[in-house]
Each structure stands twice: as structure tokens, then as C-alpha cells.
């Protein structure tokens, strides 16, 4: 039993020594030079995605909806085939606070958010 304990301790020290030795290697693996890293890691090249410029295709298809390598984008249907509620969705900025009902959750969430912003701005002014 004591022999097994000694062997286990020996393996742990050998593994630890190998890790230390590996981490102190200068110049990367096999003498290659590592690329200079930015603040968040190595810099990667940005991919240039193709942009559809054909006006006929832009009017009849939802460009970019196909996520697979094969197939085509979703073909747009006439407006009459879509539900009515789709056309009444608010796509602009949120309604002002005066338009919201005082008994709604959205109203009180907005009031709380505005109060937190105000307090944060005041705290910011006190620090400087």
C-alpha cells in the first residue's frame, strides 16, 4: 500500500513538473513565433458578406432567411395572406410615458427605469 502511495505521489510531481516546463516554453511550439494579441485575444479577419442588389429579388424574397447551404430564401406572399395584427405592430420608438396607463406594468417599469437613470447620473456627478 505504501508503494502505491509513493507511485501516485511520483506521478503527480512528474505531471506538475511537465506542466511547469511546458508553460515556460518561449516562442510557442517548435520555435514558431506567436502572433501579437490584442486586448481580447488574437485579431481575426472580418468576413465580407455578399449583399443582394437585384431589386426584383429584394421585392419578392426575404433575403438572408435561408440559413442552410442549399435551398433558397423564403418567397414573400401578398399582404392579404398575413394576419391583420402584423400590420398594427408598433415598430417605431416606444410610446411616451403620458400615453401609458398608470395601472399597467409597462408604466411602472418605465418610471423605475427613469428613476434609476436619474440616480445614476446624480451619483456620477457627485464622484467627479
From TrEMBL:
* A UniProt-annotated Pfam family: Ribosomal_L37
List, alphabetically, the GO terms of the cellular component aspect.
mitochondrial large ribosomal subunit
Span-the-membrane segments of this chain are none
- A GO molecular-function term, please? structural constituent of ribosome
Classification via InterPro entries: Ribosomal_mL54 (IPR013870)
**Location relative to the cell:** Mitochondrion
Q: Does the keyword Ligase apply?
A: no
- Major localisation: mitochondrion
Transit peptide: is it a keyword of this entry?
yes
Q: Which UniProt keywords apply?
A: Mitochondrion, Ribonucleoprotein, Ribosomal protein, Transit peptide
Record-stated family: Belongs to the mitochondrion-specific ribosomal protein mL54 family.
What is the protein name stated in its UniProt record? Answer: Large ribosomal subunit protein mL54
Origin organism is Agrilus planipennis (Emerald ash borer)
- Biological classification of the source: Eukaryota, Metazoa, Ecdysozoa, Arthropoda, Hexapoda
Amino acid at each position: 500500500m505504501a508503494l502505491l502511495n509513493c507511485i501516485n505521489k511520483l506521478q503527480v510531481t512528474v505531471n506538475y513538473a511537465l506542466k511547469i516546463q511546458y508553460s515556460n516554453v518561449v516562442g510557442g511550439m517548435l520555435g514558431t513565433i506567436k502572433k501579437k494579441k490584442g486586448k481580447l485575444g488574437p485579431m481575426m479577419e472580418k468576413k465580407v458578406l455578399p449583399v443582394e442588389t437585384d431589386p426584383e429579388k429584394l421585392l419578392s424574397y426575404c433575403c438572408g432567411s435561408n440559413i442552410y447551404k442549399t435551398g433558397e430564401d423564403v418567397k414573400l406572399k401578398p399582404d392579404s395572406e398575413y394576419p391583420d395584427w402584423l400590420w398594427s405592430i408598433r415598430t417605431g420608438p416606444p410610446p411616451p410615458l403620458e400615453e401609458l396607463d398608470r395601472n399597467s406594468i409597462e408604466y411602472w417599469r418605465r418610471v423605475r427605469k427613469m428613476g434609476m437613470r436619474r440616480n445614476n447620473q446624480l451619483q456620477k456627478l457627485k464622484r467627479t
